[in-house]
């Protein structure tokens, strides 16, 4: 059933001492969806995932995975989930196929290991020791280990952090193939492009809260600004000055870097050039581009995901 809710999270809260890392997050993920938690470091993504997979006990709230309660039905939950964590440490001296057989022995039900090795593009490395693998290969092995018992729901915590662009793209293909196989995937990331390419829906997290939740396209649409004009200006005037310009919806200024958000690029550019000529402003490095998820985060929080 495609519309079946596989992940149902209701008001999860978790504090470390006096610091509340997750402040009542709430979301659902349907069967076969890729759902992304997108946010800067420290937003609470890992803590949320750890509560769902049974590694941390929520202070408040409830969650079910494939209908099983994460607090009360821990063993059932373990059967239906596969987990790749940021800190997965593998037995470095084992060979790739050895660790897969070892993990397979932990479960009553397994998928075919040869197929898994092929799917994770590890065929040439199957007889190599783990310590000799590249970052991308280790990450693919970690995902293989998460899939060995053929789980319905797969958790991937920042699966491409630290990987080079080529290795990231390879991993994206693997995640998309898992979706094709009908898996439900919950992943966390602080890469906007990754969230955009992979996720059917995204929950944007900041400081322990889900501040927005929608499809990538709708999140950008809700900005009411399809384009961004960016430039540098020595001593830029206050935001209000730019907001008086025709067709400019929002403004962000960081030192000399100015971003104007607009739904009418031509009109906004015309008034920018007119006004800058009138006031003798020296605009440098002018660029225009389509709005992205990064712009959604900036307009909602006033900060960039990368600088948070
Ligand atoms: P990252 O991408 O850096 O892992 P995140 O969004 O996954 O970020 P969390 O790791 O969940 O965020 O951390 C949320 C907040 O809780 C941060 O302020 C972090 O410092 C704090 N935190 C996380 N784990 C612990 C812990 N074991 N003890 C105390 N504080 C913690």
- Assigned CATH architecture of the largest domain: 3-Layer(aba) Sandwich
Order of helices and strands: EEEHEEHEHHHEHEHEEHEHEEHEH
Which sheet architecture does the biggest sheet show? 6 strands, mixed
Average pLDDT rating: 91
Shape: elongated
Number of distinct beta strands: 14
How many domains? The number is: 2
Total count of helical runs of at least 4 residues: 11
Euclidean distance between termini CA atoms:
40 Å
What structural class should be given to the helix and strand makeup?
alpha/beta
- CATH superfamily membership of the largest domain: P-loop containing nucleotide triphosphate hydrolases
The gyration radius over C-alpha positions equals 23 Å
> What is the CATH domain class of the largest domain?
Alpha Beta
Could you name the CATH topology of the largest domain?
Rossmann fold
Q: Helix amount, in percent?
A: 25-40%
Proportion in β-strands: 25-35%
Give, in spatial order, the strands making up the sheet with the most strands.
6-7-8-3-9-10
Low-confidence runs: none
Protein name: ABC transporter ATP-binding protein
Subcellular location: Cell membrane
Organism: Metabacillus litoralis
Domain ABC transporter: 7-232
């Amino acid at each position: 059933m495609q519309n079946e809710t596989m992940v149902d999270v209701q008001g999860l809260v978790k504090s470390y001492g006096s610091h509340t890392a997750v402040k009542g997050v709430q979301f659902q993920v349907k069967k076969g969806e890729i759902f992304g938690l997108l946010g800067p470091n420290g937003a609470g993504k890992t803590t949320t995932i750890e509560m769902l997979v049974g590694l941390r006990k929520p202070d408040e709230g409830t969650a079910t995975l494939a209908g099983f309660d994460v607090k009360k039905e821990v063993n059932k939950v373990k059967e239906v989930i596969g987990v790749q964590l940021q800190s997965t440490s593998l037995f470095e001296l084992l060979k790739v196929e050895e660790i897969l057989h070892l993990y397979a022995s932990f479960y009553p039900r397994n998928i075919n290991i040869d197929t898994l090795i092929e799917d994770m593009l590890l065929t040439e490395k199957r007889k190599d020791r783990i310590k000799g693998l590249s970052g991308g290969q280790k990450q693919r092995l970690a995902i293989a280990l998460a899939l060995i018992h053929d789980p319905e729901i797969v958790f991937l915590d920042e699966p491409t952090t630290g990987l080079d662009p080529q290795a990231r793209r390879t991993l994206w293909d693997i995640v998309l193939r898992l979706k094709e196989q009908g898996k439900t995937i919950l992943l966390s990331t602080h890469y906007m492009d990754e969230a955009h390419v992979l996720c059917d829906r995204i929950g944007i997290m900041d400081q322990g809260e889900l501040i927005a939740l929608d499809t990538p396209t709708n999140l950008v649409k809700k900005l009411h600004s399809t384009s961004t004009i960016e430039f540098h200006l020595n001593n830029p005037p206050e935001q209000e000055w730019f907001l008086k310009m025709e067709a400019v919806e929002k403004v962000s200024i960081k030192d000399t870097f100015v971003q104007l958000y607009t739904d009418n690029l031509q009109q906004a550019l015309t008034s920018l050039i007119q006004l800058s000529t009138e006031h003798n402003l020296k605009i440098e490095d002018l660029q225009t581009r389509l709005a992205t998820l990064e712009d959604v985060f900036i307009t909602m929080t006033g900060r960039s995901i990368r600088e948070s």
